[in-house]
Design brief:
globular; alpha/beta
Amino acid sequence: MDSLASTPGRPNLILQAPLSGVCVDLSDVPDPVFAQRMVGDGIAIDPTEPLLRAPCAGRITQLHRAHHALTLTHAEGVEVLMHIGLDTVALGGEGFEPLVDEGDEVAVGDPLLRFEPGLLARRARSLICLIVLPQGQSIAAPRAGRVRGGEALCEVRPARPPTRPAEEGGIIWSGIVRVPNPMGLHARPAAALAQQAKALGGGARLRRGRTEVSAESIVGVMSLDVRCGDSVEIGGEDASMVMALAEAIASGLGELEAGGEDVMESLTAEPSLMRRVQSLSGALPGVVASPGLAVGPAYRFKPQRFDIADQGQGVEWELDKLHRALARSRKSLRALIDKLKAGGSQTRAEILIAHETLLEDTALSAEAERQIHQGRSAAAAWHESTTQQAESLARSDNLLLAARAADLRDVRDRVLRRMFGRRAPIKAIPPGSILIAEDIAPSILSALRPGQILGLATTQGGATSHAAIIARGLGLPALCGLPEALLAVHDGETLILDAQRGVVTISPDEATLEALNTRQEAQQCARVAAFNAREGAAITLDGARIWVEANIGAVEEAEEAVRQGAEGVGLMRSEFLYLNQTHAPSEAEQTAQYRAVAQALGATRPLTVRTLDVGGDKPLPYLPLPHEENPALGLRGIRVGLTRPALLRQQVRAILQGVGAGARLMFPMIARVEELRAARALVEEEAASLGVEGVEIGVMIEIPSAAINAAKLARYADFFSIGTNDLSQYTLAIDRGHPQLAAWADGLDPAVLRLIEMTLEGARQRDRRVGVCGGLASDLEAVPLLIGLGVDHLSASLAAVAEIKALVRSLSRARCRALAARALQAESAEDVRALIRAEPSEVSP
């Protein structure tokens, strides 16, 4: 073994390299938790062999259930954590073969773990192996460059012994300290606090509310999720240490400059210019969760409050109370699910099935039971265990997970109502009102009577929330992400909820209301006339044929598409077969569903199926994907299918067998020609093996690179369909679910229109048809522009099909072209919409 110099006067433990590879400084590891040494000091190796060996003798004291990490404890008490890859916990053990068990004694160099480098390279963020000392020891003389397994890697220096005895009670608390750091106690200030606490002798505690952690633990401090302006307390045995740390927190832990707090207040005092631009009209801007228009009195919906006693009346009593409330909640929820299914409300039923699963989550009930055993009441224990989990979800960067926090709060309150003998507060909602709230529980919306409310406006939530999905299913206009000023509206104040333009107008004047009433009456008459004429073809006044199809996501929606006069399905979202399930659907299950949709449409209406579009904000519980810093730019859409070809192959076979000859398959998130070629080759291979002919292969144009390279993609695609929602998002770099910016992610922005034009130009070189299946296809204002640009296939929401067909019949394509030419020269989406509204005569004779 290579020798390393020990620290003078003290023999240090020397670790051997557990595998061969290239040594990497821990600060260069692409994960802040390790790079900032939050777990501890150490070194990393980029491995060139697939076998992990013991770096020293000792006992295996921890083997993670996902088998990607284990801890070896030396006889002198030194713990060595070895972690293979980054985000490999998501693999659930796949690709790892442990060669030891917890409790095993091992000698230096003994095999510990075998892994599959190829699988990890495809599925994990990094293959790097981390050797970390989590107990406060540090390393000396670390090896650099290449190292062979068994060679000396580094020395271990013991942790500095504490300068004062361990905590024995009698803690002195500082009183309230307000945190001024703009981003709260994140990694850097947490590290500064831990460093100062250790330097002052150790033993300090940090408390936020009733939660207390060691001030010396960076991870512990971060877990408190302390935000700017939050109040905390610092505690310890020594008053001078407590006051020193309290002053350090109050001054920003070195993150703020002198006077930094005042600087921050001055920098945040002025209202956002972006918000001001959006609010020049006096209306409050929001994110459209469900389209439509409503006028009516406001009603502020407030969540129920429960007078919860903290102390219990005995463990057995409180446990019984919890279990009875859970059982009754499950029973009532199951009855509501069955009622919704019987009434054909499958989507709402599926959402509540997810709630049923939460009620059966043993982790939630186990945490509540643990607190009950500590003397807490059933209500207090259940409230805290579920609230903590909901807050954790709400803080997630994953929008879908964050949206699920509302579901968990809903389940929390359902059980609490059972404990307190209360009913859901829906009877108090005045009929014909517009509901305003911070957020609204899915179960509340599901329990409303048809027509009980006119619309919904919230300051929280998002377009992916279950409440938004239910609102769309009920046909309720809904906006979310509105400014907090909404909550200052008084009950009974008149609101205009415009979930077409994405604004709420408070107390409009009589002239505005009269004009709106006229507009609503005209729209209603137009809708009735359009529905009555839904079966005819959509042909412009100058003879251009426009095919109007529907977007669907389930069998029952295919039947509704036929009823609405759709000429086919331009987009079938296949995710409904995969989401809200705990296991992947079989090929036979998928085939049966596609066959049922095709039969519902009939032989004359084409069916276009988009292959699985998950990843990013649409995770699957049974398809673990690695954590990504930016999921929208990561493994999603066709990229998931190409990295999991068995999954894509199974779906392709099901579509081909279910739909048969003439099937249309469409790939989401195509960015490069190589992706399309690989996906097309797979489809052609399966079509040949099944003997299915006449298959058409299409591309979703959602990424600017696809629009720019449309002519090249057209060599391998039979048709294009433009997804304007994602195309707008990626072109403008605006998350379409962002509560402040989403209103600006408008598909009528001239930059987006230019990319649509480029797609059409590229398609014409190969005589490929181009459709639009994104939100613009359902936007009556946008339809003339799309037709003017050259689009001849529109795939819209079910409710918009008949109206779009009627609109097309009133247009002149020649004049639509003139309007489109001017729109491309406009400076903003607002200018484009103003152009349409000010000169409607330009699109018809």
